[in-house]
Structures are given as structure tokens and as C-alpha cells.
Design goal:
Blueprint lengths: L6 E3 L11 H6 L2 H18 L6 H4 L3 H10 L7 H22 L4 E4 L1 H7 L17 E5 L5 E3 L8 E9 L13 E8 L9 E8 L27 H4 L2 E2 L3 H17 L26 E3 L2 E3 L2
Helix pairs in contact: 2-4
């Protein structure tokens, strides 16, 4: 780590980040001051490990909140699918709140490098920058489909939940859950979601940063007609989502100078969506000196 002391972060200023999916769905005092504290109180009282989704979903407070958020139960297949999606979003939103609403904004030059094929992470035990948070990706750089055959949408970013079993902020870790968020744009109702969850005992060499993640093509290869001209990338497989997450975590952990100081949006920004009201940190490339 001593070699990292001579690194200097190259700042580009970057665009003003728009509001997060957390703010869009749960950024209200009703959740942050009433319902989420109620979930935490029940979990602590019952000794429930909330970072395991199956246990989280069995909490009474979670069930009651989902009943409020969901349309009337009609027991159809569509309703059950919607219930599962709402549950996955609530799982990540609760842990995002529980661990301090950590928001990281990856700058475009770094995101492009992390999606390249000239990186070798090597031996490294994956470590998240916080037990839970949200990584905002550059606008329209990564694309994905919620379902096979559907129209691709831009990936806004991803939630993660990776909580230490003894100390939330430190190893050992048993599980990683990730939720890709697609189609955050003005005029679109809601957003798309792609959940990825895995027991960490299955992680190859502690991370997915060096994995061959797409069997039938180059990892992160474009899927849009003409997208190569724009330098677009795509996430087609779960392994690609885990690979990108692993590389972001690796870069932040091994190059702490890449992470800027906390910022807050001043003014209204220039995006069609309102700017985020959350504090955030930019993650950019670092320049080596010596």
C-alpha cells in the first residue's frame, strides 16, 4: 500500500449527479424516520440477520410495508413477480439507509478503463467500501435488458449489500447482493431492476474481477446497433455485473486517492431529472508519480 501514497487523483469536475433510485422510491421522512427504524428495531429484538434476504423478508415490519407499497393482492403470477421485485428493492433501500446512504459516482474515464481487457486484479480478497451503498455509473455508458428479448436500457448504477458477519464493515463476509437499476430518466415511470445475489463461498479467488464473464462474446461488449461508435458497453450476464462491481471495489480499496471528498449538489444542475440531495463521493482515475 506504500506505493499508493504517491498517487494523485485526477479530477474532472464531472456532471451533477441526478437523484438516486433510493430517493425516488424511499427518500421520505415516512420511511427514514418511521418504517425503516421499525424494521431495525424488530430485527434487533428478534436477532434476525437482515443482510440475508430470506430472513429479511420474514420480518413482520417488512411484510406490512410491502403490503402498503403493493397493489391489492390478486395472487396472479404478475403480482407475485412484482412482490419479489419490491422486496428486493426494499432490501437494498433499507441497508442503504442503515449504513449511512453511501453514494459513489464513478467518472467516465475510469469506468471505461474498468471495462477494458487490460486489467489483471490478481490475488485480492474482495472488500466493499461500506457494508451497503449505491454506485452511480456514467450516463448511457452501460446497457442491459431486464428480460431476454426486451429493449436494452441504460444502467444508472447498482446497489450492493455486503455485510461482515462479526463487524459489519470488515471481513469475514458470507454473502453479496447486487441490484442493477435501469432506465432512470425523465418521463419513464419507475425504473427497471436486475437482482444478482450469491454466497461468497462461490467467489473465484475472492472476486470476479478477472473472470471470463460472457461465454459467447467479449466481456462488456456492446449490444446496441451502432453502439461501438459511441463506445457503449453492456452487462449481459450476472458474472459481468459481478465483474464490474469487483473492479470498482478493487480500485477504491487499492487506490484510496481515487475517492474524492464528500460533495453536495449546489443549484439545480442540468439533468432532466432533479439532482440528488444526498452527499456523494466521486471516484476517478489516479495519476502515479514515481
Amino acid at each position: 500500500m506504500a506505493a499508493m501514497a504517491n498517487e494523485k487523483r485526477e479530477t474532472t469536475g464531472g456532471v451533477v449527479p441526478h437523484l438516486t433510485p433510493y430517493e425516488l422510491a424511499f427518500g421520505h421522512a415516512y420511511f427514514e424516520e418511521d418504517r425503516f427504524p421499525g424494521i431495525r428495531e424488530e430485527a434487533e429484538g428478534r436477532g434476525v440477520v437482515t443482510w440475508r434476504p430470506d430472513q429479511f423478508m420474514l420480518l413482520g415490519e417488512v411484510g406490512h410495508l410491502l403490503q402498503e407499497l403493493m397493489p391489492e393482492d390478486d395472487e396472479s403470477a404478475e403480482w407475485r413477480e412484482a412482490f419479489e421485485r419490491y422486496g428486493q428493492l426494499l432490501f437494498h433501500a433499507y441497508h442503504f439507509w442503515r449504513f449511512g446512504r453511501q453514494l459513489y459516482v464513478v467518472e467516465e474515464s475510469l469506468a471505461r478503463w474498468l471495462a477494458g481487457d487490460d486489467i489483471e486484479v490478481g490475488v485480492w480478497e474482495m472488500t466493499p467500501p461500506a457494508p451497503a451503498g449505491y454506485v452511480r455509473l456514467p450516463k448511457n455508458l452501460f446497457w442491459a435488458r431486464v428480460e431476454e428479448g426486451e429493449t436494452p436500457e441504460p444502467v444508472d448504477g447498482f446497489f450492493w449489500t455486503m455485510v461482515g458477519t462479526e463487524d459489519p464493515a470488515h471481513a469475514p463476509y458470507e454473502r453479496l447482493d447486487q441490484l442493477l437499476i435501469l432506465g432512470m430518466r425523465a418521463g419513464r415511470p419507475g425504473f427497471g431492476m436486475i437482482p444478482v445475489g450469491t454466497e461468497l463461498v462461490a467467489a473465484p479467488v475472492g472476486h470476479w474481477g478477472d473472470a471470463d464473464a460472457r461465454p459467447d462474446g467479449p466481456d462488456f461488449g456492446n449490444i446496441l446497433p451502432g453502439g461501438e461508435l459511441q463506445g457503449y458497453h453492456a452487462l449481459v450476464t450476472e458474472a459481468e455485473a459481478l465483474k464490474l462491481l469487483s473492479r470498482v471495489f478493487w480500485y477504491v480499496a487499492t487506490r484510496p486517492a481515487s475517492v474524492g471528498e464528500p460533495e453536495e449538489v449546489e443549484g439545480d444542475g442540468v439533468e432532466a431529472l432533479p439532482p440528488t440531495s444526498l452527499s456523494f463521493r466521486r471516484v476517478g482515475e489516479v495519476e502515479r508519480h514515481g
